[in-house]
Structure formats: C-alpha cells, structure tokens
Amino acid sequence: LSAVENENLLALAEKETCKSAVKKLFPKYFETIFSEKRVGGIELLQLNGTESVIDLGCMWGALSIPVAKQVKNVVAVDQTLETLKFASKRAKEQNLNNIVFINSNLRHFSVEKNTFDTALVNGVMEWLPETSEVIVDEYLEKSKRSPFGENPRDIQLKFLKGIKQGLRKNGKIYLAIENRYDYKMFFGEEDPHSG
C-alpha cells in the first residue's frame, strides 16, 4: 500500500478493529493478512512453546500474530512503519504482549549471535535486492524495472548468513519464496517480481 493508504487503514483500525478496517478499505488483502491457510506451514516447525522467534519482513503480522500465540516471544521486523503500527494494533486487540516490533531495513538489519530458536522469512527474499520504494500493485504493473546495484544472489546469501548466525544451535528457519522453480514458470509465466 502507499503511505497514504497505510495511514488510512491504520486510522480506521484505531476506530474499529483491524479486521473490519481491512474488510472495508482493502478487502482483496483480507486473506493475505488474516488467512489461517497462510500460517499452515508453521506446523512444520513443530513449535513447543519455549521458542524465541524472529519474523523478518513481518508486514501486517500475518505470521507474527499467530506464532506469538504459540511461542515464548517474537521479534517482528519490517521496514514499513505503518504496517508495524497495524501489526502492533492487531497484537493489542488479541492481548498479545510477547511481541516486540522493530522498524528497520532488512538489508542492513543484523541479528545478534545465538539469539533466536526460529527465524521466519516469508515472501522476503525476492524483495531484498530492490532498493526503491515498492507499492506492490504499481510495481507489478511495470514492464521494465530498474537494474539492481548488486547481484541479487549475493544480497540474498549475505542475508541468509546473517540469519544463520542469529540462530541458536539446532535453530530453524521457515523460508517461503516465490522463485524460478514455481510451477507457473514451467508454463511460461514470468516471475512477478523480477519479470
């Protein structure tokens, strides 16, 4: 969403609830933000309730909020302040006080060694090389995108190495990414992020 759209969403959520605000203003994103299906993959982590989790690129809290109900604590990081405010409002609505929200650019965010049991990286890797502001609907409609300043693979590997150092022994990473091996690509569809 644009900054104005995010501000409008947050303003309505302050008057009502987060769910009602999304339904009214951006119904097409309701499933993305609140769907239990989106959280289904978390079961693969076999959480036991004692974990410290970091959600890198948490956006509106689609994973952070449900995971916080299952673990000791969550650190939710995103570079868009408005989405963090929205996620924080969601957490308050659900009486979750075990989430800390951090506003930071993921390309420059570092995780202290041996800090977390689990890292969530959902829909983040494909955006790391992008340095311009991204409003998704506008970005996906662009036929030509700006070239990246650095090799995207190098940026992604550096990011993953940083996550690895932040995980405790036997730590786990939940990684979800659209990539060139998506079944749609085999039928000639272009990658929606890079074209």
| Structural category | alpha/beta
**Shape estimate:** globular
| Order of strands across the main sheet | 3-2-1-4-5
- Report the sheet-strand fraction: 15-25%
Task: Please state the oligomeric state of the protein chains shown.
Answer: single chain
How would you spell out the order of helices and strands?
A: HHHHEHEHEEHHE
For the termini, the CA-CA separation is 21 Å
Largest sheet: 5 strands, parallel
Radius of gyration, CA atoms, in whole angstroms: 17 Å
Unreliable segments of 5+ consecutive residues: none
**Share of helix among residues?**
25-40%
In words, what does this structure look like?
With 195 residues, this protein is of the alpha/beta class. It is 35% helix and 17% strand. The chain contains 8 helices and 5 strands. It has helices spanning 3-15, 18-25, 30-34, 36-39, 64-68, 81-93, 136-141, 152-166, and strands at residues 52-56, 73-78, 99-103, 116-122, 167-176. The chain has a 5-stranded parallel β-sheet. Strand 1, helix 5 and strand 2 (73-78) form a beta-alpha-beta unit. The longest helix is centred in the C-terminal third of the chain and has 15 residues, at 152-166. It is globular. The mean pLDDT is 87.
